[in-house]
Write a structure and sequence with these properties.
mainly alpha, 4 helices, Helix Hairpins
Length: 126
């Protein structure tokens, strides 16, 4: 049983190391990080209902997952094809498009969920 637990802990360490690779090598990941923290802070401030929290957290996770997969694809393509090749470019471009799609969708979801209560709260302050 202790070997099982150690193996699981090692898996977490590898996963967090992967997150570190993304933060170290992908400048856009810092945009994701800042926006993620900002959305969570605003959601706390607005006292959102549980269902809205679930949608926001799922959306944030999807954007991060897309960035992780994009980084993995780019890394493997660079390893497999150090020279420029049209298929390597296509793979990297399509992977980047996946991140763009999730990010745009996340902005729209954020506006739909945070927009109305944020607008109301800001009107009450002014």
């Amino acid at each position: 049983m202790s070997q099982f637990i150690r193996a699981r802990l090692r898996s977490f360490r590898y996963a967090f190391a992967g997150w570190g690779v993304v933060l170290k090598n992908e400048p856009n990941s810092w945009i994701h990080a800042v926006v993620s923290v900002a959305v969570i802070a605003v959601a706390f401030w607005l006292h959102l209902p549980t269902r809205d929290w679930a949608v926001l957290l799922l959306t944030i996770a999807l954007v991060w997952a897309a960035e992780f997969f994009n980084t993995a694809v780019e890394t493997v393509v660079d390893l497999a094809s150090p020279e420029q090749h049209p298929l390597a470019k296509a793979a990297k471009d399509v992977s980047a498009a996946g991140v763009l799609l999730t990010a745009i969708t996340a902005v729209l979801i954020g506006l739909l969920i945070l927009g109305p209560p944020l607008w109301e709260k800001l009107q009450n302050i002014a």
